Amino acid sequence: MKAGACGSCYEFGPEFRSFTPGAGWEDLKIGTSSLKLFEGCAVVSDIDWIRESTRLTSFLMPCPVRVFGNDEREEALHWLSSLPESPGISHRLLSESQVLVVEIEQPLRAQDFDSLALTADSWLEAHAELAGVVVHAREFPGWENVGSLLRHVRFVRDHHRKVKRVALAADSRLAGLVPHLANHFVQAEVRRFGYDELESAVAWSASPPDRHPTGSG
C-alpha cells in the first residue's frame, strides 16, 4: 500500500494468491479506519477476484474507490492526485442569530457530516436548539457514495427535533428537494429562497417560527 496527502494506492501483483484469515481480519480493521482519512483509494491489480470484489463493495466505502489494471498504475496515481482536498460542504454558525449556514459545492461526503455534527453538537451542549439551518447551493451535487448518504440520514435523524426552521437558498432546479427536507425535518418549518437571497433566508431562519407551519413557503 502507498499513501499520499490525498489517497491510498493498493497494489496486488500476479504472485498474490490470498489472505490468511488472521491477516485478512487485521487488514480489514486497519484499512477501514484508515480509509476515513483519505480522499480516495485506488486498487491496482489484474487479479479478477480482487477487481470484482472491490467494485462490488466500493459504494460502501467511506471514500471513493477505483480499480485499475497493473499497466494503469500511473493513471491510478494521477487520479489520486486529482482528487479535491477541500470538503464537499463548508459551514458557519452565526451565533448572534443562532443559524447554521451550510454551503454545498462538491458531492457530499461522510466526513462533511462528521464536521457538521461536531459544530451543531457543540452549540447544542449549551443551548436547547438552533433557530434555523440554511442550505445554500447553486446545484445539488448529490452524495459521494452510499456511506455518505447514510451519514446524511443519520445527521438528520439526530438533529431535526432541535431545529425550528430550515431554509433552502438554491437554484430553482432544486425546488423539488423542499418536500423531502420537510419530510425529514418534521418539526421544522421549511421555506425555499432563491440562490441570491441568502441574507433573506438567514433573516427568516433567525425569526420566531409561525404558529402553524405549513412545511413550505
Summarize the structure.
The chain has 217 residues and is of the alpha/beta class. The protein has two domains: 2-82; 89-206, Transcription Regulator spoIIAA (2-Layer Sandwich), CATH 3.30.750.
Fold and architecture overview:
The protein contains seven helices and nine strands, in the order ββαβαβαββαβαβαβα. α2 links the parallel β3 and β4 (65-68). It has 217 residues and is α/β, with parallel strands linked by helices. The chain has a five-stranded mixed beta sheet with strand order 5-6-7-8-9, with helices on both faces. It has a four-stranded mixed beta sheet with strand order 1-2-3-4, with helices on both faces. It has helices spanning 21-35, 48-57, 73-82, 110-124, 146-159, 177-184, 198-206, and strands at 2-3, 7-12, 40-45, 65-68, 89-94, 99-104, 130-137, 163-170, 189-194. It folds into two domains: 2-82; 89-206, Transcription Regulator spoIIAA. α4 (110-124) runs parallel beside α5. The radius of gyration is 21 Å and the shape is elongated.
